[in-house]
Design brief:
- The longest helix is centred in the last third of the chain and has 25 residues.
- This protein is 42% helix and 18% strand.
- It is of the alpha+beta class and 306 residues long.
- The chain contains 11 helices and 8 strands.
- It folds into 3 domains: 56 residues, no CATH class; 89 residues, no CATH class; 100 residues, no CATH class.
- It starts with 14 loop residues before the first helix and ends with a helix.
């Protein structure tokens, strides 16, 4: 006699079902509420896709943040996708709920006239013998917005968030200032075609941006000899503004089709060194890294379909 054995395998629940159950709501009602309060359409009226919504919920779940109380919400990225934003309450939740958290202190620095210069945050971990320390400077962080009228408070928030990243390794989430800048990056999809080469006989002088007719090398901002059209090693202008720099990096990476070329372009631009020690260095470096990751993802995706 054959015995019939039945087994019930537990199927993994979707992140929507998981998160809605956590807050005691029906999945449909939970999704509608979060979309209405945390993921509004962009300025063109485009709403986040289901995949983007799921990605947002996965970040909230990973960090145990509550979107219903706006501990986490999202900006629509101009180039597609979303940028997860964590509010101050969310950062405080992350820091205070970490099992290694053992205290935090702040030290404000003022100049001889009494004006605020910087704020230093120190976070103590139970498993470290020395505190993690980060100093944020007002000149690098201040924005012309109403919250920054309370300079001491806002700079204290900034130093706390950046110190928490070093202390606990939080990644993939941003504060509002960072997120707004990253979300507003230029969309380069589909990529623009490369510029046509200039005939060898063309008479070029001064600073130029063109392509060498024989080698195909891009001659950006280089001194070109009038008679030969050859580029020298001299860089004419190294002081282009940040937005132009990001646009050129995006344009250069948008037309490559392999990771080796991505690495070459990244080395040529060297964005991490460009922003090192300058105002908003970490934000600008994060934007550059996001541009690179977008190019790598595009290439990886196309390779995966081949």
């Amino acid at each position: 006699m054959n015995a019939i054995v039945t087994t019930t395998e537990r199927q993994p629940r979707s992140v929507l079902v998981d998160m809605s159950a956590r807050f005691g709501m029906e999945p449909a009602a939970f999704e509608a509420t979060v979309r209405a309060t945390c993921m509004k359409p962009d300025k063109n009226g485009k709403v986040p896709s289901r995949e983007e919504f799921a990605a947002f919920l996965l970040v909230a779940k990973e960090y145990k943040l509550n979107p219903l109380t706006k501990e986490i919400y999202a900006f629509a990225a101009k180039g597609g996708g979303i940028v997860p934003i964590v509010s101050l309450d969310g950062w405080a939740n992350l820091i205070n709920s970490h099992p290694a958290m053992d205290g935090v202190t702040f030290a404000m620095e003022h100049n001889d006239e009494g004006a605020l210069v910087s704020c230093t945050c120190r976070i103590y971990r139970k498993d470290r013998s020395h505190p993690i320390e980060v100093t944020e400077y007002l000149s690098e962080c201040i924005r012309n917005t109403e919250p920054w009228q309370m300079k001491h408070r806002m700079l204290r928030h900034k130093s706390l968030i950046q110190c928490a990243r070093y202390a606990f390794g939080f990644s993939g989430i941003y504060d509002e200032d960072e997120g707004a800048k990253i979300a507003g990056m230029k969309d380069v999809t589909p990529p623009a075609p490369p510029k046509p080469p200039v005939p060898p006989s063309a008479q070029i002088s001064g600073a130029t941006e063109t392509i060498d007719a024989e080698t195909g090398e891009i001659l950006d901002e280089r001194e070109v000899v009038t008679e030969t059209g050859e580029a020298t090693d001299a860089i004419v202008d190294e002081t282009i503004d940040d937005n132009t720099f990001f646009e050129r990096l995006e344009e250069a990476l948008a037309v490559v089709s392999d990771l080796a070329t991505v690495e070459e372009i990244w080395t040529d631009f060297d964005p991490l060194a460009r922003f090192e020690g300058k105002p908003a260095a970490e934000i600008n470096q994060s934007i550059a890294l996001a541009i690179r990751k977008r190019a790598e993802k595009r290439i990886g995706g196309s390779n995966g379909k081949a």
